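Lab meeting, item 3. Inverse folding demo.
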């Protein structure tokens, strides 16, 4: 023990020295004969005789002369009780007179920090995501963060297509076609009233706005005032799709690199950090305090389960038996995938024959819904079979279980989509002769998206709500169904792949996907809060989020980009409708636009050279692809290097701890020998 008055006197003198240091003028402003005045030091006659109240009053006076940050730091470092600090803080934090926030640099900085915190809280679903992470952990939270990322990607694609294609076509509509009456069934089939609308490829025309010369029977007629730059709708259509894919690629690469960066390191030392350093003392609201308590408890459970799974060992016989079971489960999974692909192929051929025979309108639209219904039914039922195989395998780590489920579901969906893409490009779609085959492909993709959304709602209703009611009312148990992360994330990736595949054939498909994602967020959140329980095996999802965004980037986005690239470069478009009618390939529209551009304005021939030598040059595309792959490769290598450095530092810390234990034991033995 030190006396309370001595501590207050010591910090009073320290605060006075800090105030003099901050208020004293610099030496360059003093003349050579100047000396410090004794009146600056506020000398006390006898500070040791001052009472405790006087010392406290002097300390409060000195604290009031400091800046708010220095005052709070000084109060934080004082070795006093919390009750004494509250007594000192009360007069210091008394309400000051109202001043303009721009009257001092500290006020401007505080206003800037308040604006930043306001922007952070104004992010979409800020409190909802915190609530989900606190109750169910990071493993369930990664699904909703992934959904938010997909919503952002679709927003950028939709904005680009809306600004440069959809709005221009809406302002200058083509020749009117007698629209079909709206019956409501179009919301499911995408046909009928929606066929000749801005939703599909066939509605868009191949006109050039501000065209300098118009053809006539007597020859071409050019106005006197030549417009600066004609607006070619086919080229705007093509470039908008390309720019939206380029922006999406940049955002995906950035998300993958950031996710790799955040997943670096190990969780062996995080337990002590969570125990001693996880609490945020700025949280004062009761709801936020409860949410933070739940969040920290869930994170501690995740860390403990992860460490326990690492320490689990098996014998050789157990490992051999487990490997045989895993091999048989994979054989069954791959056989089921092959069976589903063959069933979809033969069923699609049968539906094509039924459509070719002809029937009534209602029967035709019903036939159009059968194939998406079968594919969505397979996508909804097969994950439950894979869950049974996972229960048979009995994986110890929940992360490994999610990895296996993701790979099996992804294999099924990828093979089915490859089969459908082959049928679409080989003109194996059910389509009438009056429509573009591109419009029919867009309608098929729209129906697949709608059916996928309907089956997601049915799975949420029967798989979570009805099952919870059965467990509570019939079986009289408090157990609830768990949120299937792998299946739900794969449904998001599947829906986003359909959107990217159809962005050329249905420019407004990103808007449909955005609406679907918004509804899914609120439906899944409500069902999660009311029907589901926390995972029985909590686990950290730092590396799982990296895997999800990587799967979205490489199999999904890369496959859709390859499909659209082949369509643009090699497939002949429809001859009677669409913006690229009469061309050999969609890519030829660029050359025709360059010829129009040269005729319209000879002063911008540099753009023609830029198009011919840079955009049409395949070597440039090759070098850009190599550069992108090199950036990704070097980023992965940097991440691996950081992981090695972290492992070495952790080994060094462990060795230092062992050295300290050895030295302490040696000292104890020396002291025991001396005592003897």
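The presenter then showed the designed sequence:
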């Amino acid at each position: 023990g030190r006396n309370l008055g001595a501590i207050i006197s010591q910090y009073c003198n320290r605060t006075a020295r800090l105030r003099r240091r901050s208020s004293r003028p610099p030496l360059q402003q003093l003349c050579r004969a100047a000396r410090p005045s004794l009146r600056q030091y506020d000398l006390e006659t006898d500070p040791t005789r001052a009472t405790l109240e006087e010392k406290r009053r002097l300390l409060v006076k000195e604290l009031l002369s400091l800046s708010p940050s220095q005052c709070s730091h000084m109060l934080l470092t004082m070795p006093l009780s919390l009750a004494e600090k509250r007594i000192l803080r009360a007069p210091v934090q008394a309400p000051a007179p109202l001043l303009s926030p721009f009257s001092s640099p500290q006020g401007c900085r505080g206003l800037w920090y308040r604006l930043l915190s306001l922007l952070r809280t104004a992010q979409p679903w800020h409190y909802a995501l915190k609530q989900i992470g606190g109750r169910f952990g990071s493993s369930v939270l990664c699904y909703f963060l992934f959904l938010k990322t997909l919503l952002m990607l679709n927003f950028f694609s939709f904005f680009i297509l809306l600004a440069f294609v959809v709005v221009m076509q809406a302002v200058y509509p083509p020749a009117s076609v007698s629209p079909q009456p709206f019956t409501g069934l179009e919301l499911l089939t995408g046909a009928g009233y929606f066929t000749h609308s801005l939703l599909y490829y066939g509605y868009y025309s191949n006109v050039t706005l501000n065209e300098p010369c118009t053809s006539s029977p007597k020859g071409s007629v050019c106005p006197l005032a030549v417009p600066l730059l004609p607006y070619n709708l086919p080229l705007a259509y093509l470039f908008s799709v390309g720019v939206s894919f380029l922006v999406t690629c940049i955002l995906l690469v950035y998300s993958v690199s950031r996710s790799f960066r955040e997943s670096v390191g190990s969780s062996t030392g995080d337990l002590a950090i969570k125990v001693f350093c996880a609490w945020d003392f700025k949280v004062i609201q009761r709801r936020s305090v409860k949410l933070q308590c739940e969040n920290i408890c869930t994170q501690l459970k995740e860390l403990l389960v992860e460490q326990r799974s690492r320490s689990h060992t098996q014998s050789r016989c157990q490992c051999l038996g487990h490997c045989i079971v895993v091999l048989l489960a994979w054989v069954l999974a791959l056989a089921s995938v092959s069976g589903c692909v063959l069933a979809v192929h033969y069923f699609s051929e049968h539906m094509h024959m039924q459509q070719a025979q002809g029937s009534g309108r209602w029967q035709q639209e019903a036939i159009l819904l059968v194939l998406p219904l079968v594919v969505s039914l397979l996508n909804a039922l097969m994950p439950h079979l894979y869950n049974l195989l996972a229960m048979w395998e009995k994986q110890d780590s929940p992360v490994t279980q999610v990895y296996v489920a993701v790979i099996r579901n992804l294999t099924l969906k990828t093979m089915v989509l490859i089969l459908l893409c082959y049928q679409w490009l080989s003109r194996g779609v059910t389509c009438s002769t009056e429509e573009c085959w591109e419009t029919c492909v867009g309608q098929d993709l729209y129906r697949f998206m709608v059916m996928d959304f309907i089956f997601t709602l049915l799975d949420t209703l029967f798989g979570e709500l009805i099952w919870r009611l059965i467990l509570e009312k019939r079986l009289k148990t408090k157990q609830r169904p768990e949120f299937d992360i792998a299946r739900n994330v794969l449904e998001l990736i599947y829906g986003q792949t359909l959107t990217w595949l159809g962005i050329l054939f249905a420019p407004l498909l990103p808007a449909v996907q955005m609406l679907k994602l918004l509804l899914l967020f609120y439906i899944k959140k409500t069902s999660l809060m009311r029907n589901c329980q926390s995972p029985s095996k909590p686990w950290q999802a730092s590396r799982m989020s990296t895997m999800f965004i990587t799967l979205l980037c490489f199999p999904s986005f890369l496959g859709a980009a390859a499909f659209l690239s082949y369509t643009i470069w090699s497939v002949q478009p429809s001859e009677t409708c669409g913006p690229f009618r009469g061309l050999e390939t969609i890519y030829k529209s660029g050359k025709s636009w360059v010829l129009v551009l040269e005729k319209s304005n000879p002063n911008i021939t540099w753009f023609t050279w830029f198009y011919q030598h840079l955009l049409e040059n395949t070597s440039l595309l090759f070098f850009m692809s190599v550069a992108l792959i090199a950036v990704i490769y070097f980023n992965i290598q940097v991440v691996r290097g950081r992981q090695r450095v972290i492992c070495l530092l952790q080994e060094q810390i462990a060795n230092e701890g062992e050295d300290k234990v050895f030295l302490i034991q040696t000292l104890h033995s020396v002291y025991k020998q001396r005592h003897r």
